[in-house]
Amino acid sequence: MREQGYFTGQSTAHFRTRSGLLTARLQDEWIELDFPSLPQHETAPPLELREALGVPMKYVGTDGDDYLVELDSEDAVRTLRPNVSMLSPIQARAIIVTSQASSSGYDFVSRVFAPRLGIDEDPVTGSAHCCLGPFWMAKLRKKELIAYQASARGGVLRLRMNGERLSLSGKAVTVAEDRLEVPFPSD
Predict the structure, then answer these.
(1) Nearest by Cα to 28 from 153, 158, 144, 124
(2) Which fold would CATH assign to domain 37-163?
(3) For 107-166, what is each residue's pLDDT tens digit?
(4) 22 DSSP β-pair partners
(5) For residue 36, what are the CA distances in angstroms to 19, 75, 164?
(6) Under a CB-based contact definition with an 8 Å cutoff, are residues 44 and 68 in contact?
(7) What is d(CA 156, CA 153) in angstroms, rounded to the nearest whole number?
(8) What are phi and psi of 48, to 5 degrees?
(9) How far apart are CA 184 and CA 10, in angstroms?
(10) Interatomic CA distance for residues 97 and 149, integer angstroms
(11) Range with the poorest average pLDDT among 3-7, 139-143, 179-183
């Protein structure tokens, strides 16, 4: 939409979703989305989660839909090779694995696995950052963060709390375009 001029720096796009009304607007080269913040709480990890990840876990929490797992290092997150078939039966939308960043320019890194949804690993996941944002903001005592989702494709996100909402910004490119033509019956 941006490439065709429908979405400019002066525009706000509105989306009605199962999560309620979401908005998007341009901020320079970034698209800023307004999401609900999803604070999580510490929980005991299920045995299947420990076995599927196969690495020491520093912290495990949940927001009710996803598990958030903190590991000791960025390297542990980046090199993680979970047993995806063992993750599938876990009662969670996604497994979010994260650590504080050691790479310059980022506050934290993450990866997201959602095999129950048919997604072994999601490249860049906005919804996961709805709980990652509040988690890392509290832990690092910062109001704005730069995140890197360390999937094979990867992506950088900017996060900022806006009251009880989370402003999440990222860059996007069009990877596919299509046109739908609806023929009208002739008289």
Answers:
(1) 158
(2) Diaminopimelate Epimerase; Chain A, domain 1 (3.10.310)
(3) 999 999 999 999 999 988 888 999 999 999 999 999 999 999 999 888 999 999 988 888
(4) 15
(5) 8, 30, 7
(6) no
(7) 11
(8) -60, -35
(9) 35
(10) 10
(11) 3-7
The structure tokens listed for 101 are 């960043």
Q: What does the DSSP assignment read for 76-102? A: HHHH----HHHHTTSSSSEEEEEEE--
Please compute, for residue 166, the number of CA atoms within 13 A of its CA located in the half-sphere on the CB side.
Answer: 25
Coil vs helix vs strand at 70:
strand
User: For 17-72, what is each residue's pLDDT tens digit?
Assistant: 776 777 777 777 888 778 888 889 999 999 999 999 999 999 999 999 999 999 99
Residue type, 151: S
How is the chain split into domains, by residue range?
37-163
The two three-digit tokens of residue 139, written as one number: 């832990």
Q: Which of 67, 55, 70 is nearest to 115 (CA)?
A: 67
Instruction: Mark out the alpha helices in the chain (DSSP H runs).
Output: 47-53, 74-79, 84-87, 129-140
